[in-house]
Amino acid sequence: MRKTALLSSNALMFWKTVQIIFWFIGIALLLFMIFMPPVGVTLFWNILIPVTPLLLVVGTGFWRNVCPLATTALLPDRLGLSKKKKLSSSQHTILNLVGIVLLFLIIPLRHLLFNTNGQATAIIILALSINALLAGFIFERKSGWCSGLCPIHPVEKLYGSGIAFSLPNAHCNDCVKCSIPCPDSTPNISPFIYTKSAAGKAIEILMVGGFPGFVWGWFQVSDYTTSFGWEQFLTAYGYPLFGAGASILLYMSIKEVVSKRNKKLVINLFAASAVSCYYCFRLPMLFGFSSTDSNGVLIDLSNSLPGWSMSILKLLTTFFFLWWIVIREKKKTRWSPRPKYAD
Asked: What region does 179 belong to: left with phi over 0, alpha with psi -120 to 50, or beta?
C-alpha cells in the first residue's frame, strides 16, 4: 500500500491561514517597493532572499506550501476556472528548462536594476505573478508553474534533495498526477531524472554544472546605481555566464572519470558548492564587511566585529552545507507526503 497523507480540518485551516498571511505579506512587499522603495528593497533583497537558500536546503516543503506565487498560480484551480491541461513528460521537462533560462536571465538584472530600484523589482514580481496565474488557468494544478515554469523550482530541486523534515502538502487535498514524477512527493528529488532527453540533459548541465560558477560570477559584479549601457550589460551577464561555463567544463570532466554509482555524490558536491559560494559572498556583504556593494548591507557590524569573524562564519557555513548535502547520510525524505489519489 502506498502511504498517503490526509490533513485534518484543523491542520488544513492552519495551513490555509498561513498561506493567506504569506500572500498578503507578498502584497505588502509589492506596496513597499512601489511607495517606499528603500524599505521594500531591504525587506526583499536583504532579508527574504538571503534566507531562502538555507530554507530550501533544510525545509523545501515549507516554502512550497507558503510561496505567494504558488498560491497565486493555484487560484484558478481553487475557483474552478482552470482548463486543467495535462502536460506530457517531455513538455514538462521543456517548461523546467525555460524556468532555468528565466533564472539565468533575471539574476544578472539585479545588478542593473532590481537591487537598487524598488519599482523595477515590483514590475518583475508582477510579471512573474501574471505568468503564474496564466499557468494556473491553462495547466493542471501545480504542473504549469510550481513544478514547471517557476525560476526558483530548479533551485528547489538542486538544494532540496536532503531536507530535514517533511510537511503536509497544503495545496493538494488529493493527487491528480499533474506532474510525473511529483517533485513534492518523490523521495530525495533530483532535477536530473529526465536525463535521456536533450532538454533533460541541458537541465542537468546548467543547474548542476553551471550554477556554482554562475553564483560565483554574479558576485564579481557591482550594482549600477546610474543608467547603464551595453558595456555594463555585458559585464553583468558576462561574469556569471563565464563562471557557469567554467564550472560546466569542470562538471563534465569529473563526470567522465567517476562511475555512475558516484554521480549523485558529484551532484551533491556541486549543489553544496553553489549554496556555500552564495553565503561566503553574501554574509560579509549583509554585515558590512564587503567593499563591493553597499546596497546589500542589512546591518553594518564592521565597527563592532573583527574582520576575521567573517572568515570563521564562511568556514562554518561551508562546512555545514558540505556536511548536510554531501557527507550526511540521508533518509528517503519527501518534501511532502503524497495525498490520496483523486477518484
From this structure: beta
Give me the mean pLDDT over the 39-54 stretch: 97
- Structural domain count, the chain: 1
Question: Please, which contacts does 193-199 make with residues 24 or more away whose CB atoms are closer than 8 Å?
Answer: 194/89, 194/93, 194/96, 197/90, 197/93, 199/90, 199/93, 199/94, 199/96, 199/97
Note the pLDDT of residue 5. Answer: 55
Its pTM stands at 0.94
In our burial notation (b when 16+ CB lie closer than 10 A, e otherwise), range 62-79 reads: bbbbbbbbbbbbbebbee
**Any domain includes 201:** yes
**Within a domain: residue 178?**
yes
* Segment 109-129, tens digit of pLDDT: 999 999 999 999 999 999 999
- Domain residues for the domain of 193 are 9-327
Between 157 and 194, whose confidence is greater?
157
Residue position matching grid coordinates 570563521: 312
Residue 2 lies in a domain: no
Tens digits of per-residue pLDDT, 168-209? 999 998 999 999 889 999 887 776 655 678 888 999 999 999
Cα(104)–Cα(152) distance, rounded to whole angstroms? 11
Q: How far apart are CA 41 and CA 16, in angstroms?
A: 27
Q: Which positions ≥6 away from 268 have C-beta within 8 Å?
A: 161, 162, 325, 326
Q: How far apart are CA 110 and CA 45, in angstroms?
A: 9
Kindly calculate the radius of gyration of the chain based on its CA atoms and give it in whole angstroms: 20
Residue bearing cell 548591507: 297
In a domain, 334, yes or no: no
